[in-house]
Amino acid sequence: MSNPDRIAKVIQNVSRQEVAPDPEESLFDSGYLDSFALTDMVTELEKEFGVSIPDSDLSPRRFETVAKIEAYLESLGK
Amino acid sequence: MPERRLGNEELAERLGCEASWILESSGIAERRIAGAGESVVEMGVAAGRAAGWESGAGKPGLILVSSGTGENRFPGPAAEIALGLGWPGVPAIDLPLASAGAVFGVALGSSLAAQFGDVLVIATEKMSSVTDPADRNTSILFGDGAAACVISRDGAGLEILDSALHSEGTWAGDIQLPLTGTLRMNGLSVIMQASRKLPAVISEVLTRNGIGAGEVGAFLMHQANQNLINRVAKAAGVPAERFYSNIRRYGNTSSASMLIAASEWFEQAPPAEGEVVCFAGFGAGLHWGAVVARRVAG
User: Fold this and answer.
1) ipTM of the complex as predicted
2) Do B186 and A60 touch (CB under 8 A)?
3) Partner residue opposite A35 with nearest CB, options B168, B170, B191
4) Is B190 close to A58, i.e. CB distance below 8 A?
5) In this structure, what are the phi and psi dihedrals at residue B285, rounded to the nearest 5 degrees?
């Protein structure tokens, strides 16, 4: 499974939505993530990709779309 | 607490939303709203009196007043509260830290008691005066109130064992009350930071003292949001019921909330001798911290 697909799966799980988000779609504006679901998503991304995301990287904008999340994880070597 | 109650039905009508949505998203059913004649100073004086401390009932060596909603840029409410309690001349320090102010006040008070003697810590907030009544993201959350505690070098009650305090300015813009205007909050960022930092600081202070989270009888946390309290409990690995909560009745009263919760908890379920209690707070700044204490005889 590609990274975007794995990310979308995590988002679907925490948001309990059946339809996967588009890569450039705002996860906040589209209703996939509220403040608590965003926190859950970060925790699940850590588990899924085996990374530790420091508090200093926890800017909502960094996690606003699948594409941005993919780019961020890539910066962590994933 | 102010007498006036603002319930979700009344608030929903004003905001054009569903009362059920307010309860589901925040866990808050009603909040208290101070009247025009109930200032931060007046509520603070009332809290000091409720704690049994006013002129004629002893004299503290120091007063710490936490408030992010004082009426002036300066002075803060501390000196006027000291005067109102009948103690002109007693040093009174303002802690304008917003929501984390009480946990900072308790932690600092436990250190300063060695130098000043009894320290009266008061947290008093009039959040309704700084919240945009038309902003559904903030006006549903906040309420008004005040509470106080006394920290002595010795005596009965809770013995403060240790504290951990932190500040981080990176996120200062995500929750702030500017000089003009009303409270601004980036809920996405604030909740994400709080969800991480509160469990971490609780773990830090407990681990340093060789105390497991399961050994703590009660967690007395800043009452920000019931969903946040539940998540911190989950992260700490303890049942949510171990975290005392009154947010359903009072909403988020910023720094006052932790001491209001502690006051109610102590009255309703006084801890047994030896029981461990953990306080925690988080707020604008960002500032956050935790204090661990143990019930001693008396």
Assistant:
1) 0.88
2) yes
3) B191
4) no
5) 145, -65
